[in-house]
TrEMBL record, chain B:
InterPro entries for this protein: ATPase_AAA-3, CbbQ/NirQ/NorQ/GpvN, ChlI/MoxR_AAA_lid, P-loop_NTPase
Protein name, UniProt field: MoxR-like ATPase
Start and end residues of each ChlI/MoxR AAA lid domain: 245-317
Region (Disordered): 325-349
Pfam families: AAA_3, AAA_lid_2
Superkingdom of the organism of origin: Bacteria
Gene Ontology molecular function terms on file: ATP binding; ATP hydrolysis activity
Domain ATPase AAA-3 intervals: 52-181
Length: 812, 349
């Protein structure tokens, strides 16, 4: 039953995986684990043996399902198996970064899923069957639920969670029914002093609790601000969503900035484009360019150009832009009905176009396909494009353009802004080539410099004040990053513009990438002589879904392979591009000459999920350590109490050198010291599971401690007797014992008990001291009793005003 | 000669003097009674607590021997009464006889007019005769024919009796039992002690060789020392709690009296003093609970049917009752803690 509940709990994972292979494997794993549980229980193994059996079976199952082909008999794991598991782990780690949801069947991910669910099944089983605490089993289940929630950026489907919660409820109900059955038959409460519409007081209480719980769960998120998905926010934000998507078919001039922020700030996810390409790791799909910069920021010019029926030009054919290594690919694009731009999304450097009629034209300069009469809504088209690969060294050869070059004239005009000017001067100092200058600016937007991604940071416009604000606050989203980089590049005398489009996307439908409003993106394009317009994406890769990085502009926030990236980008000529792309990508499945390198994968190494998980684990460990810490603190305080407070007033002859000796002048002080020492001794006994009997006198307790903990003939025995005598004198004698080395005695007793107790007891005494736990439990119990008393008193008061009281009396 | 009264027992002894005196008495008695150290100490403690001792056991285990040895060790007046079924109260208390010379009634003191009265086989006399001891044991005086005669100090009754199941016994009335501070049982000696007994008792009666090691005035001073022993409030509360527990226990029909509380604490003081302490421990009370209280309580019919003796009932109460303490209550251990903790916690903060 616990196993089935665990399986149901795994339902939310269905949202993550594309296929159902994982389900089969998980059913298998959980089934085998449950079988092991039943078997060990039938054989009446002790609890630890049951747990060990289940873990063993889980291990065997995993070995069987994910073989490294080096096992004995195909089942018995060998060290190689564990190496294999380790590889699967790292593979899964890479996959989690490389793939968006839903993921395909990757071995690593399947392994993680099976392992996780198997482990949860074990924990749930132990909690429900052994510990009979089914409510606690919700915690490991919750861990499963949280996976899809963490993985999905926006909302997650509801149904699997309902299934999962049904599993949990089933577990609770089954356990309670079982518990009630142990008492015999169940009664509905008829014949007792209960109203007819209340079948039993217990059930009524349960219902009330449930209603309160659900109400709290619904109301709290509404009240608490900052939850963007909250109902209230949704209500208030309706309408802003698709606001910018229009632009009108007749007017080619579109406010791309507004469109972009509109896309990104919409709360729901709307698929816009479905694109299939034979390129393994495509760069961004692009539909617009903003290259006119004035005080209001980057704006798109009205595109002009020849109809596409006249053919497109390839950058390869132009000597000014044929630098780099070109490869030709084919792509099919399908636009959904929700996307109504008059600009067609294409990959850059499109060379042929199919499926669009004569109303579409190609702007040579900005490389966009546009229409003045219609839009792309529902269109399907395909095109061929060339993708250029550059290496930093190649790009470094690009010369500074002459000042009369049309590109310089057109794309380096900037409004005067002293802040930007000084900043750029500072950054590009000592940089010779345009590429190095751009890289210097590009790297400026790293996390190290305090930049962080935020969708809510600034206004949608990239105007002067906004750029200033962004450079000052260092918080913004892709548009601010792109516009700032372009602006600063222009300031440095390098032609630059802002491109708009979609990232690679992280959602897949078969082979096609499904691009949604979430993937809308803006980046910078820089014109380098001999190469043409080259994209630079300064936005932090970790914050943009499906973002990718190029060899010439690696992720600045990446920290894991500093040698490779720095040698490839910063140090001129230090390393070849081959090093840059293969060194960090070793062992990963990147295509050999890939310029979109593995750097992108490792770039988001510190994804929020990982950080969260780490933090959770740390928190858990910290929580576990709290009792131990508390114990240590209590002991310390008591030792302080027993350690001499050397009396200042009466200069008593303090024995030199012996810190442990109590040299209090007042009997009261000595008494307290003895009490403190005794309390510590009692707690120590509790910790080491020596019975503490409240009917025993200190003398008896000490004797019994010596007997039970087997302390005879040791200094610990004397110490225990000393402590007992000190305490009884403190309690009952006229004069308490003075000058006894209680702290030393305590340490001796502690050592003595520890020496004779089992390892398990010792571990418990250190990690989860029973004395602390017991005290907390009792404190909680007392608090709840007080609370309940208060509530029942309140209830009595309320009942006095209840008319039902009269009814009941009349009925009688 | 001034007769010392109970209120002026004499000056207390120092610790060493006390120890020397009591050790001498105990050693003296142990010449006769082999291997019964605890019983002997208890007997002495009862004496020092100004109480009366009831020794109950089967015939032949040395009850009378203990009583006589204790009496002989102290150089004071000792009277022995053999309680027989035809013994009359006047034999115990004394009687007024007509003196022809003075032509007046003259009081002939009975057996109780002594420092130590050994009442042998006390439950073989009829309750009527047993009751003659009531006044003298509690009030240390005898009233005959309207005249009250004070008894000497110290005054102690050491009675022996056979268990109630024995033939020809009359059970002591509750009032009489309540006057005895402690009831102790001799118990059979262990084999080694019995062998030693065979050797020593074979030739001569060791009782005859016994010399007194103390006199009445020393005993009075010993008593005064015991009175000085400190009983902390916690200990007093524990004594009260113990006695109260017998009154509330469901298997007891008649609980222990307030007199027993008093005697419990007094005896505990004596025990503490014998151990060289000047303060009473709950341990002392625990050790004394059975001897002091078991003979006073009357178990319910149910408890009797279940063959539960008063001894087991009392010792169960002792094991069940948590120690009181003058510190605030500790949640899990009533003994360890509270006040002290609160104090040093506040110090810590």
């Amino acid at each position: 039953m616990a196993a089935a509940a665990s399986l149901l709990a795994a339902a939310p994972l269905s949202a993550i995986f594309e296929t159902w292979t994982w389900l089969l494997q998980c059913i298998l794993t959980v089934g085998l684990v449950a079988g092991a549980a039943v078997l060990t229980r039938t054989l009446r193994f002790p609890t630890w043996a049951q747990a060990a059996g289940m873990v063993l079976v889980l291990l065997l199952t995993l070995t069987w399902i994910f073989p490294s082909h080096e096992e004995l008999l195909g089942l018995i794991p060998t060290p190689a198996t564990f190496n294999h598991f380790g590889e699967l782990f790292s593979e899964a780690g890479n996959d989690t970064r490389a793939y968006g949801v839903p993921v395909p069947n990757r071995d690593g991910l399947l392994f993680i899923a099976a392992l996780g669910i198997g482990a949860v099944a074990i924990v749930v089983d132990m909690l429900t069957v052994v510990a009979r605490r089914p409510a606690l089993a919700g915690l490991p289940m919750l861990a499963i639920y949280s996976v899809p929630v963490a993985v999905y950026i926006d909302s997650v489907p509801v149904i699997p969670f309902i299934v999962a919660s049904i599993g949990y409820l089933w577990l609770l109900v089954a356990d309670n029914v079982d518990r009630v059955r142990r008492f015999g038959r169940r009664f509905t409460g008829d014949g007792r002093d209960v109203d007819v519409w209340e079948p039993s007081p217990l059930a009524a209480a349960g219902r009330r609790l449930a209603v309160i719980g659900v109400a709290a769960a619904v109301v709290l998120p509404l009240i608490v601000p900052g939850l963007n998905t909250g109902l209230l926010n949704q209500l208030t934000q309706v309408g802003t969503g698709g606001g910018g998507t229009g632009g009108g078919p007749g007017n080619g001039r579109i406010d791309l900035s507004a469109t972009l922020s509109g896309f990104l700030n919409t709360t729901e996810t709307i698929p816009y484009v479905k694109v299939t390409t034979d390129e393994t790791d495509p760069f961004y799909l692009r539909f617009g360019v903003a290259d006119a910069l004035n005080k209001d920021g980057f704006k798109a010019r009205t595109p002009t150009g020849r109809p596409i029926s006249n053919g497109l030009t390839s950058p390869q054919d132009n000597p000014k832009t044929d630098g780099g290594e070109y490869q030709r690919y084919h792509a099919d694009v399908e636009i959904t009905n929700d996307f109504t731009q008059s600009l067609a999304p294409i990959y850059s450097s499109t060379v042929t176009m199919d499926g669009l009629d004569g109303s579409w034209a190609y702007d040579q300069s900005s490389q966009v396909i546009f229409s003045n009469r219609t839009n792309v809504r529902g269109k399907k088209y395909s095109f061929d494009y060339v993708r250029a690969k550059y290496t930093p060294d190649e790009l470094r050869q690009a010369e500074q353009l002459p000042s009369d070059d049309p590109n310089i004239v057109q794309f380096t005009t900037v409004p005067a802004d002293p802040t930007v000017e000084t900043l750029v001067q500072k950054l590009v100092k000592n940089k010779d080539t345009p590429y190095d200058k751009v890289m210097a600016l590009y790297k400026y937007f790293s996390k190290e410099n305090g930049f962080k991604y935020s969708l809510t940071a600034a206004g949608p416009n990239g105007d002067v004040s906004a750029i200033d604000a962004f450079l000052k606050d260092k918080s913004g989203y892709c548009q601010q990053y792109a516009a700032s980089l372009a602006w600063m590049a222009r300031e440095a005398g390098i032609p630059a513009r802002v491109a708009f489009g979609f990232t690679k996307g992280d959602t897949r439908d078969g082979k096609a990438y499904v691009l949604t409003n979430r993937n809308a993106h803006a980046w910078t394009e820089v014109y380098l002589d001999g190469f043409g317009w080259i994209p630079f994406d300064a936005t932090p890769a970790a914050s943009v879904a499906g973002s990718s990085r190029s060899a010439w502009a690696p992720d600045t926030d990446q920290v894991e392979t500093p040698s490779a990236s720095s040698s490839a980008t910063a140090a001129p000529g230090a390393a070849s591009s081959a090093n840059a792309s293969t060194a960090p990508g070793a062992g990963k499945d990147v295509d050999a000459g890939g310029s979109v390198t593995g750097d992108a994968a490792t770039g988001s190494g510190f994804s929020t999920t990982a950080v969260l998980v780490t933090a959770l684990i740390a928190l858990l460990i910290a929580l576990l350590l709290v009792p131990a810490l508390r114990r240590v603190l209590v002991r310390k305080r008591r030792h302080e109490a027993t350690v001499p407070t050397v009396a200042a007033a009466s200069a008593g002859p303090a024995p030199p050198g012996s810190l442990d000796v109590v040299v209090t002048t007042e009997a009261v002080q000595a008494r307290e010291d003895a009490h403190a020492a005794w309390d510590e001794l009692v707690d120590t006994m509790l910790d080491y599971r020596v019975q503490v009997d409240p009917t025993e006198t200190p003398r008896h307790t000490a004797q019994r401690l010596i007997h039970e903990a087997d302390l005879q003939n040791s200094s610990a025995a004397e110490a225990a007797v000393l402590l007992g005598t000190a305490e009884e004198r403190a309690r009952y004698a006229r004069q308490p014992m003075r000058g006894a080395a209680l702290t030393t005695a305590l340490a001796q007793v502690r050592k003595g008990i520890a020496a004779t107790s089992t390892r398990r007891t010792r571990l418990t005494a250190v990690l989860l001291p029973p004395s602390v736990m017991l005290r907390w439990r009792l404190a909680i119990g007392e608090a709840s009793t007080t609370g309940m008393t208060g509530i029942s008193r309140l209830r009595d008061v309320l009942i006095r005003f209840s008319p039902r009281r009269l009814l009941a009396n009349r009925a009688r | 000669m001034t007769t010392p009264t109970w209120d002026e027992p004499g000056g207390p002894l120092t610790n060493d003097e006390f120890r020397a005196a009591t050790d001498a008495i105990i050693a003296n008695i142990e010449h006769v009674i082999e291997g019964k150290g605890a019983t002997v100490r208890l007997a002495l403690a009862v004496m020092l607590a100004e109480g009366h001792l009831l020794i109950e056991d089967v015939p032949g285990v040395g009850k009378t021997m203990l009583a006589k040895a204790l009496a002989r060790s102290i150089d004071c007046s000792v009277r022995r009464i053999q309680f027989t079924p035809d013994l009359l109260p006047s034999d115990v208390t004394g009687v007024s006889v007509y003196n022809q010379e003075t032509r007046d009634f003259e009081f002939k003191p009975g057996a109780v007019f002594a420092n130590l009265v050994v009442g042998d086989e006390i439950n073989r006399a009829s309750p009527k005769t047993q009751s003659a001891l009531l006044e003298c044991m509690e009030e240390r005086q005898v009233t005959v024919d309207g005249t009250t005669y004070e008894l000497q100090a110290p005054f102690m009754v050491i009675a022996t009796q056979n268990p109630i199941e024995m033939e020809g016994t009359y059970p002591l009335p509750e009032a009489q039992r309540d006057r005895f501070t402690a009831r102790i049982a001799m118990g059979y000696p262990d084999p080694r002690a019995e062998l030693a007994m065979l050797n020593s008792h074979g030739a001569v009666d060791p009782l005859n060789a016994l010399r007194a090691v103390a006199d009445a005035s020393l005993v009075r001073r010993l008593i005064a020392t015991v009175r000085e022993v400190h009983a902390a409030e916690a200990v007093q509360q524990y004594a009260i709690a113990l006695v109260n527990a017998t009154r509330e226990a469901p298997e007891i029909r008649l609980g222990a009296s307030p007199r027993s509380t008093l005697q419990l604490l007094r005896t505990a003081k004596a025990i503490a003093a014998l151990e060289g302490r000047d303060y009473v421990l709950p341990d002392d009370l625990q050790a004394l609970a059975v001897p002091v209280m078991a003979h006073r309580i009357i178990p319910t019919a149910d408890a009797q049917l279940n063959r539960r003796t008063t001894d087991t009932i009392i010792s169960e109460i002792v094991h069940r009752l948590p120690l009181p303490h003058d510190r605030a209550r500790n949640p899990y251990d009533t003994r360890a803690n509270g006040d002290g903790r609160a104090q040093y916690e506040s110090r810590g903060r």
